[in-house]
Amino acid sequence: MRAAYYDRQGPADEVLCVAELPTPQPGPGEVRVRMHMSGLNPTDLKARTGFSAPMPFPRIIPHQDGAGVIDAVGDPEEAGRIGQRVWIYEAQYGRASGTAAAFVVVPAGHAVPLPGDVSFEVGASLGIPALTAHRCLFADGDINGRRVLVQGGAGVVGTAAVLLAKWAGAWVAATVMNAEQASIARAAGADLVLDRLNDDVAGAINTHTRSAGVDRIVEVNVQANLDLDLACLASGGVISAYAAAQATDELSLPLLRAMVHGCVLRFVYIYSVPQEAKIHAIRDITACLAIGAYSPHVGLKVDLQKIAEAHQALEAGTVMGKVLIAI
Question: Which residue ranges does the record assign to the Enoyl reductase (ER) domain (predicted)?
Fold first, then answer.
């Protein structure tokens, strides 16, 4: 099969290769998916560069997310799934081979049915972004009728959070940094879009919430935004942080101010989220897809041969929206 891989960590243009590799075969509890689209995430960059950990396997086929069609199963009783359209999550977590290949073998539960009217592009945009956004939003209960602030509302996780929060019946504000980002956040359904470089974000939030503040904050940069978050947060509200720029990043917390707020500071790392919570997320994501309410913004799509270019574009921050690899 045609696949991308790396045998050592380093810069994309130095370590990523595309070649013919053996086609994998599913074992018990597994299915094989013929890939149509692979989704690229920041965690894939961090794995390739050694940000998260050293090489866990001698050779890695990257990427956790993707979408395709099941073409083989490891258990005969699962034969009815052959031909099923699916989206995939955590394909390469704890395994050597991810979705940047013509075929991938994953645990059967990690291949989730994709409704027939939902494109493979949308399917490959789910995975890490949608599961992370769901955990940030729903870990502390239902958000119907609640107020949500998404910091970085045009990012991939941020857009997922806006889409899922609106599907769930929340009022949503989103911060952005330029006109292009504002357009993306509005298209996702944000009720209020604020330029964090030029607008009085806390003042606008308090005006629109009648000084009640927001109940949930989905946070892309808690180090930079904590003071602002506390200024926007309702009493007893939750700040969910899901990203770190450096492995050594630390956070100083204003304890008294946080205590007065009675706030919860939650950290979300999708790989350590309990499986029960992921099952809940998958159920909600499926419901959102079923009514056509999940429309992520795709910023770049290239073919497999140009995977290094896709990695470089995401790393450089020159792409706004999901980066996809057409298999």
Answer: 12-325
Is 302 within 8 Å of 280 (Cβ atoms)? no
Q: Domains plus CATH for the chain?
A: 2-126+296-326 (3.90.180.10), 131-271 (3.90.180.10)
- The vertex-177 CA angle with 173 and 300, nearest 5°, equals 100
Dihedrals phi, psi of 319, to nearest 5 degrees:
-115, 130
Give one word for 301, left, alpha or beta, with left for phi > 0 and alpha for psi -120 to 50: beta
For the question of whether the overall pTM of this predicted structure is more than 0.85, the answer is: yes
State residue 22's pLDDT score: 98
246 pLDDT exceeds 80? Answer: no
Task: State the amino acid at position 171 in one-letter form.
Answer: W
φ/ψ (deg, to 5) at 171: -90, 135
Q: Are 267 and 241 in contact (CB under 8 A)?
A: yes
| Residues contacting 6, CB < 8 A, separation 6+ | 15, 16, 17, 48, 59, 60, 62
